[in-house]
């Protein structure tokens, strides 16, 4: 009697979560399909742009040729942008790639800097990232984040759909769990020998389970861009929240020479030499130049490779002496700080380089199919239920 009661209770729980899973999926299916599809397309956006616009991103390195000093390349760009101010320079480790130099035009604080690609061997300015490919991916980005609507409208819609998605995943975990423990293996594979309904059900059930863990990670990190209250709560939970008005940490400053020597920056090659001594591994550099006479030279370096982490190590150097004033090695930071600063890479899948992006691409592709396979399951179940009008009551035969 007790076992039957337990079975009945568990069946009621499964039925409740099944109904929750179904109706939440129906309510948000179209939006989730759009968000997942656009996320799938956007996963390798940077790689696709580099292939489509290869004449900007790659260069031909002449045999035994040396890359020109960064100052020569900067001067070449500033001829294109008279009166411009260089913000940062990106120096790739790969000798067959172009440099990128960001320049801000004029003194307008609202003006956005423009990035220019430069051939490091000829100092030829190759163009800007603006292209048909970049415009296409900007549309995909806006579709993913705001459904191509105004941000004040689209952001909360996507946010609510993402919250619903979290509930769908949680309810899916409950209803996936088999009635009998010995049958759990059936939920881990697709029976391609069955009819199309069986295959569709297994695709939704099994692939949905495999994808659900990374999808949950994407959803929980993505919510930080939809709701400020959620972002604040996560930061408080991680112990990195700073209330508005909290004094910012005073940044290190370069020391102006007091011996009468000229206040002139070192060559960028000198900063790179110092950085290579502190960060002795192959990587791409981004050097942010000082904005005034006491600001530092900020350097970030990213590792290379199939499993390379997205996080960068950072240095701040005295612009006159090249002396390290602050060093931030990502791997040495406390776990909570590493998590807080990795939300973007955890959401887009770049936290372990190409390897994790491939996993995210497959996961997003599966997620795109789930509203479709789920809807088909629902339609098939509706067809199975006979209408009350079609029910026929057959009388028992009389025994002679």
From TrEMBL:
Lineage top rank: taxon: Bacteria
Keywords (A to Z) from UniProt: Membrane, Transmembrane, Transmembrane helix
A Pfam family the protein falls into: PepSY_TM
Chain ranges passing through the membrane: 20-44, 157-177, 207-227, 358-379
Domain PepSY as annotated: residue spans: 72-127
Protein's UniProt name: PepSY domain-containing protein
Species assigned in the record: Larkinella knui
């Amino acid at each position: 009697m007790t076992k039957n009661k337990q079975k009945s209770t568990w069946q009621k729980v499964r039925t409740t979560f099944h109904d929750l899973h179904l109706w939440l999926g129906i309510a948000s299916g179209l939006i989730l399909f759009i968000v997942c599809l656009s996320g799938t397309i956007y996963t390798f956006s940077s790689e696709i742009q580099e292939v489509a616009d290869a004449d900007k991103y790659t260069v031909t390195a002449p045999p035994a040729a040396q890359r020109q000093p960064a100052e020569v390349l900067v001067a070449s760009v500033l001829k294109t942008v008279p009166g411009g101010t260089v913000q940062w320079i990106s120096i790739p480790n790969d000798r067959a790639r172009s440099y990128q130099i960001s320049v801000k035009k004029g003194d307008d604080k609202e003006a956005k800097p423009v990035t220019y690609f430069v051939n490091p061997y000829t100092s030829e300015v190759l163009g800007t990232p603006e292209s048909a490919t970049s415009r296409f991916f900007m549309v995909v980005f806006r579709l993913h984040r705001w459904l191509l609507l105004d941000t004040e409208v689209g952001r909360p819609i996507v946010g609510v759909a993402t919250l619903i998605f979290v509930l769908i995943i949680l309810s899916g975990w409950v209803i996936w769990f088999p009635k009998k423990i010995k049958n759990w293996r059936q939920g881990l594979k697709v029976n391609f020998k069955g009819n199309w309904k069986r295959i569709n059900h297994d695709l939704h059930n099994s692939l949905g389970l495999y994808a659900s863990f990374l999808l949950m990670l994407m959803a929980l990190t993505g919510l930080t861009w939809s709701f400020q209250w959620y972002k604040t709560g996560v930061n408080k939970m991680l112990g990195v929240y700073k209330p508005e008005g909290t004094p910012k940490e005073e940044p290190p400053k370069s020391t102006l020479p007091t011996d009468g020597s000229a206040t002139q920056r070192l060559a960028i090659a000198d900063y790179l030499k110092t950085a290579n001594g502190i960060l002795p591994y192959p990587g791409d550099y981004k050097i942010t130049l000082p904005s005034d006479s006491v600001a530092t030279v900020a350097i970030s370096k990213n590792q290379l490779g199939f499993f390379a982490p997205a996080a960068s190590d950072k240095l701040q150097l005295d612009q006159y002496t090249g002396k390290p004033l602050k060093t931030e090695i990502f791997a040495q930071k406390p776990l909570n700080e590493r998590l807080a600063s990795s939300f973007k890479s955890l959401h887009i899948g770049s936290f372990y380089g190409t390897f994790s992006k491939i996993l995210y691409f497959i996961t997003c592709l599966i997620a795109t199919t789930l509203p479709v396979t789920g809807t088909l399951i629902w339609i098939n179940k509706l067809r199975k239920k006979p209408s009350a009008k079609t029910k026929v009551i057959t009388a028992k035969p009389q025994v002679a």
